[in-house]
Amino acid sequence: MTRTYKITGMTCTGCQAKVQHILSQVTGVKQITIDLATNEANITMEKDLSIESFKDALKTYPKYQIEEKEVHHPVQSIAWEEDHRSWLATYRPLLLIVAYIFFVTMVTSLSDGILNSKAWMNSFMAGFFIVFSFFKLLNLSDFAISYAMYDVVAKKVKGYGFVYPFIELGLGLAYLMHINPIFTNLTTIVVMGISSIGVIQSVINKRKIKCACLGAVFNLPMSTITIIEDLTMVVMAMIMLTMGH
Predict the structure, then answer these.
(1) 4-41 tens-digit pLDDT
(2) Which CATH number fits domain 2-68: 1.10.760.10, 3.30.70.100, 1.20.1250.20, 3.30.750.24?
(3) What is the pTM of this model?
(4) Is residue 221 within 8 Å of 83, Cβ to Cβ?
(5) In the chain, how many H helices and how many E strands?
(6) Distance CA 39, CA 10 (A)
């Protein structure tokens, strides 16, 4: 079932993300969407939860107050804004960024018109990690909150979301400078493999939450494209390991 609540005290997207993260951790909550403009939250639950369970979750943040809102018709779960647009329009920012990295690294890996596949993969992975870490670092706190909503490590290890962009940046620099390729590729397999677990779980459970792959800059919904993004890096790292050095 889905119920609508009024939440006061939110003044920015950071507040919105924080409240959404806190309430999503309440046992029995399947999905939550918050409209900052109206200060309304639509919460989908496995069973009818009392308003007190949400008030208790927010009690450490007294500036945020939640109250039930009367509705005169059945409330339906509000989908992400992107769901009303085409798939291409929704993921256009992500596709453009990946395309830029893909073609620029391909051009730089050409020698006399022949593509050096190993050099291309190394450059692509360097560009991918550096660029994606940049977007996450633009708003590190909001990224950490969004990431903790689905990543299996960030959910349990406080502060991991703040460290993760720097791990990506470190991997990007390691690929760029060819530092210890075996260790770098193994680290990529572990980091991206673990990251993909939470993404896969969210997609399988059909949780409509924000994908944090581009930080808090773009409002992208979690989907199979996020799984492909993570697993592609795992596969490329595995291929790099088998190609020798």
Answers:
(1) 899 999 888 888 888 999 999 998 898 898 988 888 89
(2) 3.30.70.100
(3) 0.64
(4) yes
(5) 9, 8
(6) 7
